[in-house]
Amino acid sequence: MDTAHVQAGQRVLITAAGGVGPFDVQFARHLGAHVIATASSARHPWLKDLGADETIDYTTTPFEEAAADVDGVVDLVGDGHDRTSTRALKTLSAGGLLVAVPGGVSPDLAAAADAAGVRPTGVLVEPDGPALTQIAELIDAGEVSVEVEKTFPLAEAATAHTQGEAGHTRGKLVLTTTG
Ligand SMILES: NC(=O)c1ccc[n+]([C@@H]2O[C@H](COP(=O)([O-])OP(=O)(O)OC[C@H]3O[C@@H](n4cnc5c(N)ncnc54)[C@H](OP(=O)(O)O)[C@@H]3O)[C@@H](O)[C@H]2O)c1
Questions:
Q1: 71 in helix, strand or coil?
Q2: Which domain of life is it from (predicted)?
Q3: Fewest Cβ atoms closer than 10 Å to its Cβ: which of 77, 99, 159, 179?
């Protein structure tokens, strides 16, 4: 919303619809975009329910061969795994925007984007009350849902981190400070 300024009818690719990605799928669908999401196939029915028009199994299909003419990519994998940010550049139409979430934009990625005629940017989550209010309104209206994979007492925060770092979370891991 704030970075890519997604418009109705645009094509948006979201790589790694696991924890953050399902929100991106729902926000992009809310804005009227055509949503393409990568995830392993077991996640595909869930992502379709959330609003994905197309799903790509990244474990069997190079996503850059299955998605094209994209206006915006939200890449949640980064170049640290299989050069995902650099590969995502190939899916963009001229002038399209890559939002590289993990790692941001390295000099190599910036050069590759320049050569491809597309725009790269990073993004960093910051405290933002108005945005959280807007998201809460979307949740209250039933436009956005929040999947909680597991809840942990605060004393088990290390276990929650270990699970999150495994990189296969479906939705959010929640720490509770009471009960
Ligand atoms: N810049 C910021 O402010 C900011 C904020 C939040 C998060 N982040 C970063 O954004 C990234 C995503 O966070 P998250 O919480 O969504 O992560 P996550 O919960 O670990 O989700 C990872 C998802 O990625 C999928 N995946 C794993 N390897 C993949 C690959 N090679 N290609 C495509 N998909 C792959 C997994 O799918 P399967 O389970 O189906 O295999 C899983 O669903 C993390 O690196 C995190 O540090 C940055």
A1: strand
A2: Bacteria
A3: 179
Q: Using alpha carbons only, how large is the chain's radius of gyration in Å?
A: 16
Superfamily of domain 11-122: NAD(P)-binding Rossmann-like Domain (3.40.50.720)
How is the chain split into domains, by residue range?
11-122, 147-179
Helix segments in 60-169, DSSP class H: 63-66, 84-88, 107-116, 129-140, 157-165
CA distances from 154 to 158, 167, 177, 178 (A): 9, 20, 6, 8
pLDDT at 18: 86
Residue 79 clears pLDDT 80, i.e. is over it: yes
Rounded to the nearest angstrom, the distance between the alpha carbon of 62 and the centre of ligand 1 is 17
Compute, in angstroms, the gap from residue 19 CA to the centroid of ligand 1.
Answer: 6
The structure tokens listed for 81 are 């795994």
User: Can you tell me the distance from the alpha carbon of 175 to that of 178, in angstroms, rounded to the nearest whole number?
Assistant: 9
pLDDT band at 118 (very low <50, low <70, confident <90, very high): very high
